[in-house]
Amino acid sequence: MSAMLSIEVCYARAEAQTLIALTLPAGATVRDALAASEIVKRHPELDPAIAKLGIFGKPTTLDAPLADHDRVEIYRPLIVDPKLARQRRVEKTRRAGSIEGRKWLPKDSR
Known about the structure:
By secondary structure, the protein is of the alpha+beta class. The chain contains four helices and five strands; from the N terminus they run E-E-H-H-E-E-E-H-H.
């Protein structure tokens, strides 16, 4: 095991993505990576204490230890519930008269 870890910190907004490569000492935590990346200076709207965090898509905490080549991800809050958004798209398609939107309806009401 090497004495240094190669880590990436990423945060994506709708209009831009930030990806910061870091080298940290072994035993570093997610909190250390966020502090070293100074991502809060670039994106002042972030609050690491309440933001959802993950490592390669798996939820994690600020105190989680990092391994070499980990990618720390900071997630934005959802604007709309994905299930509700899908339901709205289906309803819009049904109103437009597409067979695609009607295929889930009972056969006698198509």
